[in-house]
Description:
The complex is a heterodimer of chains A (238) and B (180).
Chain A: E1 7-18, E2 21-33, E3 38-42, H1 49-56, E4 64-69, E5 72-73, H2 79-89, E6 90-93, H3 105-115, H4 120-133, H5 149-161, E7 167-171, H6 179-196, E8 199-203, H7 207-210, E9 215-220, E10 223-229
Parallel strand pairs in A: 3-8, 3-9, 6-7, 7-8
Antiparallel strand pairs in A: 1-2, 1-4, 4-5, 9-10
Helix pairs in contact in A: 3-4, 3-5, 4-5, 5-6
Chain B: H1 2-13, E1 16-17, H2 18-28, H3 37-49, E2 53-55, E3 65-68, H4 70-80, H5 92-100, H6 105-136, H7 139-179
Antiparallel strand pairs in B: 1-3, 2-3
The complex binds adenosine-5'-triphosphate (ATP) and magnesium ion.
Magnesium ion binds next to helix 1 of chain A.
Amino acid sequence: MKDAPAVSFERVERVYASGPSVTRALGPIDLELEIGEFVAIMGPSGSGKSTLLSLAGALDRPTAGRVRLRGVDLATRTASQLATLRRRSLGYVFQDLNLLPGLTACENVALPRELDGASIAVARREALEALDTVGLGHLAERFPEDLSGGERQRVAVARAFVGARELVLADEPTGALDSMAGERVLRLLRERCDESGCTVVLVTHDATHAGWADRVLFLRDGLLASEARGSARLVPGV
Amino acid sequence: MSVRNGILALLAEEPRHGYALKSEFSRRTAGTWELNVGQVYTTLARLRRDGLVAEDEPVDGPRHRWRVTGSGRGALEKWLGTPVDEAASRNELILKVLLALGGPPDRLRLVLDRQRAFAMERLQEYTRARPVLADAGDLSAELALDALVLRVDADLRWLDRCEQRVADRERESRLDRGSR
Lengths: 238, 180
Ligand SMILES: Nc1ncnc2c1ncn2[C@@H]1O[C@H](COP(=O)(O)OP(=O)(O)OP(=O)(O)O)[C@@H](O)[C@H]1O
Ligand SMILES: [Mg+2]
């Protein structure tokens, strides 16, 4: 039997009602993301990208329709079950507010594993390994404020993939970085996706970053407008 | 003119056989610009006619090598020193979108969506080739790819801008109608 998709949206809508005004932020949307797929979401400001990402990342609930992660309907889960799911199986990389300031890079990466019940020694070993994969093993004992913006985002990438994560969600993770540092974060996301078999969903305004994805979805006014599926074909002669 | 000057540049590096010119041209442009043998020989014939290249006596077998002449070097220096003026207005994509503006908005949106998806797929292909090239250490291929990536990126930004401006215009005209 075919594996259930990493993420599936079935007629998903997210509507915000404040007083008399109603904003349809997203939907209705039907969508399936395969396990191991790297998907980028693009679209103008306000088109619903972050809303879609929050729903896929169990950070928000739809006002209609079903969101399933590996076949599990999130509506059937209690708040505490969702919290466990987020801690154990999901990873997040956001534009800022990523790392806790009082903890070293290593402690930041180890934290979700410790919260999940791993011993401090195991969590630390896994954290160091994860930092190595993003080329930051040598900065493990630094505090976030002593790292560059690009290094902080790479720590966040390490943390998002540490342990047995299944789905990593990144919302504008390169927002404040210059283009070379941003490119590096993207390459890492791609590498970690390929090596871990995780599904990655990336929201970005930068087409050259979306170029790393297997599939790019374009949103307009909360709906899917079009989609790009790059073939495996390389540039001729390369 | 580009092919002609490209061939001149390769011959200024060292004398080459016709076939070697074809493959070196392709290699140096990272496979983004392929010449066929016929094209190479016609170009060489014209360059010879204009006194910019000459044939060497064949040494190894029947094929002879071509080399650049003194005036060929002069022509090459002149080309390298002259800025390129690629008129952005003579571009099929721009033309298509500008003309689609005269039709129904849905069709314009379709044009933009199709082109955006297509351009993105190109970008995905180029991006996939990047780590391979970086590992191979092929600088000219990397730079060729950078050029392709940044040009597609410019197209994508322009498509976004078209859509945004059209949407703004539609909103304004709705407001105008509403306030009347
Ligand atoms: N808490 C909220 N209350 C009311 N409306 C909201 C709320 N959150 C988002 N929205 C609205 O939902 C729509 C989609 O927002 P969303 O944040 O998903 O956009 P986005 O595509 O991520 O934009 P950006 O590129 O600017 O981050 C917007 O119109 C926004 O104003
Ligand atoms: Mg957003």
